[in-house]
Write a structure and sequence with these properties.
The complex is a heterodimer of chains A (517) and B (70).
Chain A: H1 6-25, H2 37-42, H3 49-60, H4 63-76, H5 83-108, H6 113-121, H7 124-155, H8 163-166, H9 168-184, H10 187-215, H11 218-224, H12 227-230, H13 241-257, H14 261-268, H15 273-282, H16 284-303, H17 312-318, H18 323-331, H19 334-372, H20 378-402, H21 405-419, H22 423-428, H23 437-457, E1 463-468, E2 471-476, H24 477-499
Antiparallel strand pairs in A: 1-2
Helix pairs in contact in A: 1-9, 1-10, 1-19, 3-10, 3-14, 3-15, 4-7, 4-16, 4-19, 5-13, 5-15, 5-16, 6-7, 7-19, 7-20, 7-21, 9-19, 9-20, 10-16, 10-19, 11-16, 14-19, 16-18, 19-20, 21-23, 21-24, 23-24
Chain B: H1 16-26, H2 43-67
Helix pairs in contact in B: 1-2
The chains are: A mainly alpha (517), B mainly alpha (70).
C-alpha cells in the first residue's frame, strides 16, 4: 500500500468531522418527538421536494455504486453502461406507482411496505414474507457500503498491511454512523445527504472535465479502450447474447430499485405525493452524473493506472474496485483527493444509515408488533427501532470484517432477485386488490426459490441463460423469476377466490389519491 | 367517496410518453454502434446519455400535463 497521503487525509477527516456534527445536530431540525416511530424512522414525513431530492439521490446512488459501476466499465466495458438505461427507467416507475403508495401510507400511518400489504390484503403471513424479503435484501447492501468505505480508506494509505489495526478507521466511521442514526433517526442522513451530494457533484463534474483534458480529449480516451470493451458483442444466430443481458439487467434492476426498504423509506418521508412526482422529473440529474461516472472507468483505462507501480498494492487488495480511487489519486492534487474520497466515504454512510433505519422499521412494525408485542407504546416502538438499527449495522460490520467480500457481493446479487418478488403485492397492490393474498404468497415463494436456484446454477453470475427450443436468451434471473411469480399468482387467484373469501381490505380507493378529505 | 376529484388518479394518455423511453433504451440494436461519434464519444454512450435528458423532459411534460387535471 502506498504511503499515507496526509493532505488528503486531513481534508477527509475534517469533512467527516463536519458531517458527524451535522448528524447529531439534525435531531433538532424540523423538531419532532423522536419517541414516535414515524418521527425517528420517517423524519416526521416532513421533507419537501428539495430535501427529498437529496435524500432519495443520496439513498440510491451509494458509495458502492460510485466504486463498482466504474470498476465494471474498467474491467468489462460497455455492459456496465446498463446502469444508464436502468436509471432512466426508474423514474417513470417512481412517477406512476409511488405517489399512490405515499397517499395510502400517509392516510393509514403506514411506515413500511409490509404495513401497506398487511392493510391491503389482510394477510399477516404475506406481510411477513414482504418484511423478511426486505430485511435479508438490505443486509448485504449495508455491508457493501462498508466495502466502498474500505476502498477509499485504503486509497488514503491507511489500512494497509492487514490485521486488526488496519480496520480501525472503518470501525470509527461505523461508530459515528451508528451513534448519529440512533440519536437523530432519518433526519441525520437527510441532512448529511445534502453535503454528500454537493461533494459528489463537484467530484464527478471535475473528473468529467479535468481528466479528459489531461488525457487529450474523449477521442483519445475511447481510442485507448480495447475494441471488445467498447460496444456490446453482437449476438450469434441462436441467442440474444449481450443484448438480452443488457436490456434485462436494466429493466430488472429498475423494477427492483424502489421495492428496497431504503427506497420506500425515502419516498414515504416526503411531505406530499406531489413532491414525489416532481422528484421523478428532477432526479434524472443523478442519472446523468451516473452516466459520466461510468465513463470514468474508461478514463482509468486510458490513464493506464492499473500499470502504475504506486497503485499495484491497491489493485492487488481491492481488484478493479481500486480503479476510481487510483485515477483520482493520479489526476488530482491531494486536497481535492481528500474532498473526492470524503464524498465517496460519506456516500457510504448516508445509504447505510437509511438502510438500517428501514430494516429497523420493518422489524419493529411487522415482526415485533405483529407477532410479539401487539400493543407497544409509541415510545417502546421507537426505542425498539433504535436498538434494531444498531444491531443491523453491527451485523453488517461483523460481516465485512470476518467474511470474504465476495460473499457480500453474491448476497447483494441475490438480494436483487429476492426483493423483486415483492413487486406483485406492493407495486401492483397499489393499483389493484384483484390478487388473492395466498396466491401472492405462493407466487412469492416460488419466485424466491426459482430465482435463487437460477443464481446458484450459474455460480452467482447476474444472468441466467434461459434456453427455449435451442434459442438462448441470457437474462437477469430476477426478471425471469418475477415472471414465474406473476404467472403463479395470476393462475392461482381465480382458483383460490372460488373456494375462499378474501380478508377485508382496510384501504379505500380514495386513499390512493390526493384527497382533501 | 364519489366526488368528481376521484378521477384525478385515473389513467392519462400522457403516460404513453413513458413508453417511448422504455423502447428507446431497452432495444440495444438501436444504439450499439461507434458511429456517429460526438466530440469523440461513441454513439452507444452519447445516445444513452441523451436519453437521460430526453427522459427527464418527457417526465416533466407528463407532470405538468397531468397536474392540470388535479
Amino acid at each position: 500500500m502506498q504511503d499515507v497521503n496526509w493532505i488528503a487525509l486531513v481534508v477527509f477527516v475534517a469533512l467527516f468531522g463536519f458531517i458527524t456534527w451535522l448528524g447529531f445536530a439534525a435531531a433538532h431540525w424540523r423538531k419532532g418527538d423522536l419517541d414516535m416511530l414515524h418521527e425517528w424512522g420517517l423524519g416526521g414525513r416532513r421533507f419537501g421536494t428539495i430535501i427529498t431530492w437529496f435524500l432519495i439521490g443520496g439513498d440510491l446512488y451509494t458509495a458502492y455504486t460510485f466504486i463498482a459501476v466504474p470498476a465494471l466499465a474498467f474491467g468489462a466495458g460497455a455492459i456496465a453502461f446498463f446502469a444508464v438505461p436502468y436509471t432512466i427507467l426508474i423514474y417513470p416507475i417512481l412517477f406512476l406507482v409511488f405517489p399512490r403508495l405515499w397517499y395510502v401510507c400517509h392516510k393509514h400511518n403506514y411506515v413500511t411496505a409490509a404495513d401497506f400489504v398487511r392493510g391491503r390484503f389482510g394477510n399477516r403471513w404475506l406481510a411477513l414474507a414482504i418484511t423478511i424479503t426486505g430485511i435479508i435484501a438490505t443486509m448485504p447492501y449495508i455491508a457493501l457500503q462498508l466495502v466502498g468505505l474500505e476502498v477509499v480508506i485504503g486509497g488514503l494509505g491507511l489500512g494497509g498491511g492487514g490485521g486488526f489495526v488496519a480496520e480501525v478507521p472503518l470501525i470509527i466511521a461505523f461508530i459515528i454512523l451508528a451513534a448519529f442514526t440512533y440519536s437523530s433517526g432519518l433526519r441525520a442522513p437527510a441532512s448529511i445527504a445534502v453535503v454528500k451530494d454537493i461533494l459528489i457533484y463537484i467530484t464527478v463534474f471535475a473528473a468529467a472535465i479535468v481528466i479528459p483534458i489531461q488525457l487529450g480529449g474523449f477521442g483519445k480516451i475511447f481510442a485507448a479502450v480495447p475494441a471488445q470493451k467498447l460496444l456490446l458483442a453482437s449476438p450469434a444466430a441462436n441467442t440474444t447474447g449481450a443484448y438480452g443481458t443488457y436490456a434485462t439487467l436494466a429493466l430488472g434492476s429498475a423494477l427492483a430499485l424502489f421495492l428496497y426498504p431504503h427506497s420506500i423509506t425515502g419516498i414515504l418521508s416526503a411531505s406530499s405525493g406531489h413532491a414525489i412526482r416532481r422528484n421523478a422529473a428532477m432526479l434524472p440529474g443523478y442519472s446523468f452524473m451516473l452516466g459520466l461516472l461510468t465513463l470514468v472507468g474508461f478514463f482509468a483505462i486510458a490513464a493506464g493506472v492499473a500499470n502504475l507501480p504506486e497503485f499495484a498494492a491497491g489493485f492487488k487488495e481491492f481488484g478493479n474496485n481500486f480503479a476510481v480511487p487510483a485515477l483520482l489519486l493520479h489526476s488530482f492534487p491531494s486536497w481535492f483527493v481528500g474532498i473526492a474520497f470524503a464524498a465517496i466515504g460519506i456516500g457510504a454512510l448516508v445509504p447505510a444509515a437509511i438502510m438500517s433505519i428501514a430494516a429497523a422499521n420493518l422489524y419493529t412494525r411487522n415482526i415485533h408488533r405483529e407477532f410479539i408485542n401487539k400493543n407497544p407504546t409509541d415510545r417502546q416502538e421507537a426505542q425498539m427501532a433504535k436498538w434494531v438499527s444498531l444491531i443491523v449495522k453491527f451485523g453488517a460490520l461483523v460481516f465485512i470484517l470476518f467474511v470474504p467480500t465476495q460473499y457480500a457481493i453474491q448476497l447483494q446479487l441475490l438480494g436483487g432477485i429476492w426483493i423483486i418478488q415483492t413487486l406483485p403485492a406492493v407495486m401492483l397492490g397499489v393499483y389493484t386488490r384483484w390478487f388473492n393474498d395466498w396466491a401472492l404468497l405462493i407466487g412469492w415463494a416460488i419466485g424466491m426459490t426459482v430465482g435463487t436456484a437460477m443464481a446458484v446454477a450459474v455460480n452467482f453470475a447476474a444472468t441466467y441463460p434461459l434456453t427455449i427450443g435451442g434459442f438462448t436468451v441470457p437474462g437477469y434471473a430476477a426478471l425471469y423469476a418475477l415472471v414465474i411469480n406473476l404467472v403463479v399468482a395470476i393462475v392461482l387467484t381465480p382458483m383460490l377466490r372460488a373456494i375462499s373469501t378474501p380478508p377485508s381490505d382496510v384501504t379505500a380507493e380514495g386513499d390512493y389519491v390526493s384527497g382533501r378529505a | 367517496m364519489d366526488q368528481p376529484s376521484e378521477r384525478r388518479s385515473a389513467w392519462s394518455w400522457w403516460y404513453l410518453l413513458f413508453a417511448i423511453q422504455f423502447i428507446a433504451v431497452l432495444w440495444p440494436p438501436f444504439y450499439n454502434s461507434v458511429e456517429p461519434t460526438l466530440w469523440g464519444i461513441p454513439f452507444f454512450y452519447w445516445y444513452q446519455l441523451a436519453w437521460v435528458i430526453i427522459g427527464a423532459v418527457l417526465t416533466a411534460i407528463v407532470y405538468f400535463a397531468t397536474r392540470a387535471d388535479h
